[in-house]
Amino acid sequence: MFVFNAASNELHSKRRKIISQGFSEQAMRASEPKILKHVANYCNVLFEPVTKTGWSEARETTQWSAFFAIDLIADLTVGRSTAMLTSPENRIYNPARKANFARMGLAIQWPEAFRGGLFKNLKLGELLFPKIAKLGKQWQNLLSSWIAARLKELRSVEKLATEDDMIVAIARYKDPETGQGLSDGDLTAEMTTLLIAGSGTITTGMTSLLWYLSRWPDSYGKAAQEVRSIFKTPESIGMNSTLSTCIYLKACLQEAMRVSPAPTTPLYREAGPGGAVVCGIHIPEGYEVATTIYALHHNESHHPDSFTFDPERWLQDKENLRATKAAWAPFSVGDRNCVGMTLATNEVLIAMATILWYGDFRTADDPSLASIGAGSQRLGPGRQRVKEFQLYDTFGASTEGPYLQFKRRKIP
Question: Residues that bind heme, according to the entry (predicted)?
Answer without folding.
Answer: 338
